[in-house]
């Protein structure tokens, strides 16, 4: 039984009830963690209301806007954690972005701006959030990010997001090496394809899911809840010896050659 009682967990990346971060937040809550949830503001405040309604049953004690490209929102998120919680135990980095134009067709068509935006939001943000979390993790902590096989192998249309995931996975190793002496563990979960808002921007995502359903040892893809279970494990004392790793939660697809 995973027990996260007394742990303060910040979960980023919930957009709706299909989000992987939603699956993770539910499992952390079930394990007893005290949750803080961040959302991405939009002009009309629609996201803020929608996500607030969704997460209400999990009783988050913090609910904050945090656009990872906005320094003032990052600073105010972590200042609020310092003021209200005093310490942070768990950070879930579950966000990524690339323009739809960059997620289909030829990789050589990637624009300079599209490349740097995807890398900034999807990879650099982990470094930035870890820097902000570090002083709040004086008692140690666990940081989990989300990656995909397209950061290791070529997956049609994944394009610049594959480069961002490769950078993200290397971030995990450098961060784990730096933060390990402080007993802060940093790991990634490489999830199998799941239908979400972000994945629907990737050209041919349904074909990818059908392919996994045919080929993966478990003959299916995974659910948000399964990824959430793995995240809860990585955040718990049961995973106290694990850092700097990429854990595949993909119904076994990654081992297959054909
Ligand atoms: N769905 C999949 O098949 C799959 C597979 C492997 C890994 N992942 C990864 O899982 C993570 C979550 O994606 P998802 O599939 O649940 O989709 P999602 O659309 O539900 O979540 C993506 C989140 O990123 C947030 N985001 C985008 N730009 C942001 C910014 N500037 N600041 C803060 N937040 C921002 C969005 O608000 C959204 O909540 C991503 O890192 C994604 O690459 C997804």
Automatic annotation (TrEMBL):
Q: Does the keyword Oxidoreductase apply?
A: yes
- Where does the secretion signal sit in this chain? none
Catalyzed chemical reaction(s): a 2,3-saturated acyl-[ACP] + NAD(+) = a (2E)-enoyl-[ACP] + NADH + H(+)
Q: What is its EC number?
A: 1.3.1.9
Read off the CDD domains from this record: ENR_SDR
For whether the record's keyword set contains Lipid metabolism, the answer is yes
Query: What pathway is it annotated to?
Result: Lipid metabolism
Instruction: Give GO MF terms, alphabetically.
Output: enoyl-[acyl-carrier-protein] reductase (NADH) activity
InterPro entries from the UniProt entry: Enoyl-ACP_Rdtase_NADH (IPR014358), NAD(P)-bd_dom_sf (IPR036291), SDR_fam (IPR002347)
Q: Which keywords does UniProt give here? A: Fatty acid biosynthesis, Fatty acid metabolism, Lipid biosynthesis, Lipid metabolism, NAD, Oxidoreductase
Instruction: Please name the Gene3D superfamilies in this protein's record.
Output: Enoyl acyl carrier protein reductase, NAD(P)-binding Rossmann-like Domain
Entry similarity comment: Belongs to the short-chain dehydrogenases/reductases (SDR) family. FabI subfamily.
> Under what name is this protein listed?
Enoyl-[acyl-carrier-protein] reductase [NADH]
| Gene this protein is translated from | fabI
């Amino acid at each position: 039984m995973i027990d996260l009682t007394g742990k303060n967990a910040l979960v980023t990346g919930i957009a709706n009830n299909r989000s992987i971060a939603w699956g993770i937040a539910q499992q952390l809550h079930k394990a007893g963690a005290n949750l803080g949830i961040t959302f991405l503001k939009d002009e009309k405040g629609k996201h803020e209301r929608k996500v607030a309604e969704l997460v209400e049953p999990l009783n988050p004690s913090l609910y904050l806007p945090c656009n990872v490209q906005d320094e003032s929102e990052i600073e105010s998120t972590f200042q609020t954690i310092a003021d209200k919680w005093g310490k942070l135990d768990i950070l879930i980095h579950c966000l990524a972005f690339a323009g739809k134009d960059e997620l289909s067709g030829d990789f050589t068509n990637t624009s300079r701006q599209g490349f740097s935006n995807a890398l900034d939001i999807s990879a650099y943000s982990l470094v930035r959030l870890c820097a902000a979390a570090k002083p709040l993790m004086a008692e140690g902590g666990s940081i989990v990010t989300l990656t995909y096989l397209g950061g290791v192998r070529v997956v049609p249309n994944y394009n610049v997001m594959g480069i961002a995931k490769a950078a993200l996975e290397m971030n995990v190793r450098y961060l784990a090496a730096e933060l390990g002496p402080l007993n802060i563990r940093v790991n990634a979960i490489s999830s199998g394809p799941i239908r979400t808002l972000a994945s629907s921007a990737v050209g041919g995502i349904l074909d990818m899911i059908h392919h996994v359903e045919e080929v993966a040892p478990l003959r299916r893809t995974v659910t948000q809840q399964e990824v959430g279970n793995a995240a809860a494990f990585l955040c718990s004392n049961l995973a106290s010896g694990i850092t700097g790793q990429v854990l595949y939660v993909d119904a076994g697809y990654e081992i297959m050659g054909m």
